[in-house]
Write a structure and sequence with these properties.
This protein is mainly α and 253 residues long. The protein has 14 helices and no strands.
Length: 253
Amino acid sequence: MDRSGFFKNTSRSDENRKNRQHQVTELRKDRRGEQISKRRQVIEGTTDDGMAESGGLTNSVELIDTHQIKQIFLESDSNPDKVFSAVQSCRKILSKESPPQIDEAINMGLLPHLVHFLTLDGSPELQFESCWAITNIASGTPLQTKAVVEGGAVPHLMRLLSSTHAHVAEQAIWALGNVAGDSAMYRDFVIESGIIPLLVDMTASTTASITLHRHVAWTLSNLCRNTDPPTSIESLTKIIPSIRLRLCVDTTA
């Protein structure tokens, strides 16, 4: 007995289901774009208060353009203050220009220098500014995020999660969250780099700040994004308990 008549528009139903899935995926992409934009705006908004709290830095640095920044980076005898001011100018250009001059910064070859500055443990404020600039580059288009990954920034950002300077570690979380949120491939790359246990350890202490919990929760959510392919079950079993703990954090303290 032919039962095909009992199933109404089977092929059309499959097609409609695929269309719905595609529409949901597109909506998620749109929302992700909005979230990335908001994330950059939050970074801009903390320029004064955030910087003062984390390192006592001021917002009075005189901006210079990318060509001048590159020249300072190339001068082997540049004094530390001059280099720091150049990095801070780079970060401000990437944070405040409309649109941000991300492609120009990449094309000018500034990214390798910023990645190098992440290795200078004796200069935590330089690490912080460099990490901030890289965060904004990674929040851009897929090609811009690709430049961050292929520029070798991820291993250095992973290492900074263990920094004894809280503001440096928190900025590294932001940068890695932007990388992970770009695509399933980069999400898995960040996971395979060992980010999950590091994030869990960072918030295990009862003294972990609300800000840290928020950064970790946002990055963990990005580790669950993208469905082609979805995050592995093995990774989810490690992420979900940590997210559940975040739900119990008192954010009014």
